[in-house]
C-alpha cells in the first residue's frame, strides 16, 4: 500500500503508544510486538522515509523500557505465558483451527480403516504392542501397558518423546506446510485406529476415562504444534504485503514461540501419564474430573482467554 494510507491506518495507534505511560511489562511487551511489526513493514516498503525513522525511535524506546532492569526481565518471562502466547493463539486462530480439522479428519480415517481391516491396527501400532495389550485384556488389566516402567523412567521417556514429536510437527512446516500436514496425518491415523481398537473390544468408555487423563493435554499440544507448523509454512506460501523473506521471519518467530510455549503442557501430560494414568483402578468420577479439568484448561487458555486479552488490547487495557 502507499505510505500515506499506511500512516493513516496506524497513526492513531502510534500516537497512543507514544504517550503510553504504563510500566506494566505485559502492556509494554504487547505494544512492542505491534510496533516492531509495523517497523518491519515500513523498512520493507519505505526504508528511507520519516515514518520508518519515527517507528524505529518508538520501538527503541519501548525496548529500553522493557529491558531496563532485571526485575522487568523476570516479569517479561512470566508475561510470555500470561500475555504473549495467548495473543499468538488469537492471532493465528485460523491456523490452529485448520490443524484441528486436519487432525480430526485423519483420526476418522484411522478409525474407519481399523474397522474395515483387521490388520490395520497391527500395521500402525506394531505387533508387539497389540499382542501385549491383548494379553493384558485377557488378564483383566487392559491398560497394564502403562504400568510397564517406573514412574520417573516413563516420565522422562514420554515427555522427551512428545516434545520431539511436537517440534517435528512444527519444524516440518517449512516444507510449504506439507510436512506438518504429514505429521498430523500420521498422529491422527494412529490415534483413530488406537481408539477404535479399544471400542472394538468393548472397552470404549473405559479407554476414554483412562487414556484421555493424559491424552487431553498431549493431543491438544500436538494439534497446537501443528498450528505452529502451518504458521511457519503459510508465511512462505502467503506472504501478503510483506516480502517473502520478511514474512518467513515473522512466521518462524511466531511458530517457534508457540512451539516453545507448549513445553510445560507436555511436561504436565508426561506427569499425568507416568504417575496418574497407571492407576487404572481409580474411580470413574476421579478420572473423569481430571480429564474434564484438562479439557477446560485447554479451552480456556487457547480459546477463551486469548479472546479476552484481544478485547482488552483493543481498549489499551492488558493489565
UniProtKB/TrEMBL annotation:
Membrane-spanning ranges: 96-116, 163-184, 196-213, 219-238, 258-276, 282-304
InterPro entries in the cross-refs: SpoIIM-like
A Pfam family matched in the record: SpoIIM
Superkingdom of the organism of origin: Bacteria
Keyword entries, A-Z: Membrane, Transmembrane, Transmembrane helix
Protein's name in the database: Stage II sporulation protein M
Organism, as annotated: Hufsiella ginkgonis
Amino acid at each position: 500500500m502507499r505510505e500515506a494510507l499506511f500512516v493513516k491506518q496506524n497513526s492513531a495507534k502510534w500516537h497512543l503508544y507514544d504517550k503510553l505511560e504504563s510500566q506494566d511489562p505485559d502492556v509494554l511487551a504487547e505494544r512492542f510486538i505491534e510496533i516492531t511489526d509495523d517497523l518491519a513493514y515500513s523498512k520493507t516498503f519505505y526504508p528511507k522515509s520519516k515514518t520508518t525513522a519515527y517507528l524505529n525511535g518508538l520501538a527503541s524506546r519501548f525496548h529500553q523500557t522493557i529491558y531496563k532492569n532485571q526485575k522487568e526481565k523476570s516479569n517479561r518471562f512470566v508475561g510470555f505465558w500470561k500475555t504473549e502466547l495467548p495473543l499468538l493463539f488469537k492471532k493465528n486462530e485460523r491456523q490452529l483451527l485448520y490443524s484441528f480439522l486436519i487432525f480430526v479428519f485423519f483420526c476418522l480415517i484411522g478409525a474407519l480403516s481399523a474397522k474395515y481391516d483387521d490388520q490395520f491396527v497391527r500395521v500402525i501400532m506394531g505387533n508387539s504392542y497389540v499382542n501385549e495389550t491383548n494379553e493384558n485384556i485377557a488378564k483383566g488389566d487392559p491398560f497394564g501397558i502403562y504400568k510397564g516402567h517406573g514412574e520417573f523412567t516413563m516420565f522422562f521417556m514420554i515427555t522427551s518423546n512428545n516434545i520431539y514429536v511436537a517440534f517435528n510437527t512444527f519444524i516440518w512446516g517449512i516444507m510449504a506446510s506439507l510436512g506438518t500436514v504429514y505429521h498430523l496425518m500420521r498422529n491422527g491415523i494412529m490415534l483413530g485406529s488406537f481408539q477404535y481398537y479399544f471400542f472394538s473390544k468393548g472397552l470404549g468408555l473405559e479407554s476414554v476415562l483412562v487414556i484421555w487423563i493424559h491424552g487431553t493435554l498431549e493431543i491438544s499440544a500436538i494439534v497446537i504444534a501443528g498450528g505452529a507448523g502451518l504458521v511457519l509454512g503459510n508465511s512462505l506460501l502467503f506472504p501478503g504485503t510483506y516480502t517473502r523473506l520478511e514474512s518467513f521471519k515473522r512466521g518462524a518467530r511466531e511458530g517457534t514461540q508457540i512451539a516453545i510455549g507448549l513445553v510445560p503442557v507436555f511436561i504436565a501430560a508426561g506427569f499425568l501419564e507416568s504417575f496418574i494414568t497407571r492407576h487404572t483402578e481409580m474411580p470413574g468420577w476421579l478420572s473423569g474430573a481430571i480429564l474434564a479439568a484438562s479439557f477446560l484448561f485447554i479451552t480456556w487458555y487457547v480459546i477463551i482467554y486469548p479472546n479476552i486479552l484481544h478485547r482488552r488490547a483493543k481498549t489499551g487495557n492488558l493489565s
